[in-house]
Amino acid sequence: MASSALSLSVHQPNSQFFSPCLRCCKIWKNSPSSFSFSDGDYKRSVTCFSSKKKIGFMDQILDYIEGGPKLRKWYGAPDLLPKDGSTSEENESTEEDEVRDAVLVTDGDNEIGQMVILALIIKRTRIKALVKDKRVAMEAFGTYVEPIAGDAKDRSLLKKALRGVRAVICPNEGFISNIESWKGLQHVILLSQLSVYRGSSGVQAIVTANARKLAEQDESLVMASGVPYTIIRAGLLVNAPGGNQGFNFKEGCASQGKLSKEDAAFICVEALDTVPQKGLTFEVINGEDKVMDWKECFATLIEKSEL
Question: At 39, phi and psi to the nearest 5?
Fold first, then answer.
């Protein structure tokens, strides 16, 4: 049966993240001319032969994860670490580790956390992630990610995780602790559902009571840390394609509106490029406003917050 070609794009500002499926890798290997790339300031296109329709971001994550060694070979990435996940780099000098060029994702097992990781991979960022199982993380992301397994509340573990880190992205509540270890951090980005929890009532308010407490605690810790921060108070996070809708940043919108998880992950990554002098807290949901320049958007939000 003849293949049906599908063109997917990786671009800004309305980013669609993409990693090729296994079938595409095989086709590319046998016939590189079947794939076309066009590099510019904002766009790179890839032709995919695996589907007749545009695949969702979560399907792309599954392709990426299930691809394992084949995808890493396709991308030209190094081999996996040994089975114990160890590397000689762990014993390298402290001086070398203190070069702060990495971004730490506090929950690499979380759905949005994985979306954030893939977005950072596309940006060719050095990534560290807190995970439950280092081996599983290595099988999923290869050497694109430096996984740190263990209890996030363990001071020694957190100190190790933050070594060489310039910024932290927290995709969900309950993973922020021991801010004493944050010395030297340049930026903390927190994706918060606090506005949604505060806007809930009845049974839903009871169900989300613990999550609300954690979200309030996280926001308070971030604000008191002394590290420049960006708190993104998102609307209800939903499974919807990212990059297809606009946004709404009006105060109070998050308690009633919704935001695509893909868009939430994308905003977290875009926030890395704009570090506020002290802190920025804003609400966002999907809406009608198109964002053509995220740096300009964040600059405007910072300006409004200072008024």
Answer: -95, 130
CB of 190 closer than 8 Å to CB of 225? no
State the 10-residue block means of pLDDT for the chain, 307 residues long.
37 40 40 40 40 52 50 48 48 57 93 94 94 90 90 82 93 79 91 92 89 91 93 95 93 94 96 95 96 95 88
Can you tell me the distance from the alpha carbon of 163 to that of 155, in angstroms, rounded to the nearest whole number?
Answer: 12
233 is a domain residue: yes
In three-state secondary structure terms, 21 is coil
Domain that residue 302 falls in? 98-306
Residue 175 lies in a domain: yes
Radius of gyration of the chain (CA): 20
The pTM assigned to this predicted structure is 0.72
Count of domains for the chain: 1
State the CATH number of the domain containing residue 138.
3.40.50.720
> What one-character DSSP code corresponds to residue 273?
G
DSSP classification of residue 272 = G
Asked if residue 257 belongs to a domain, the reply is yes
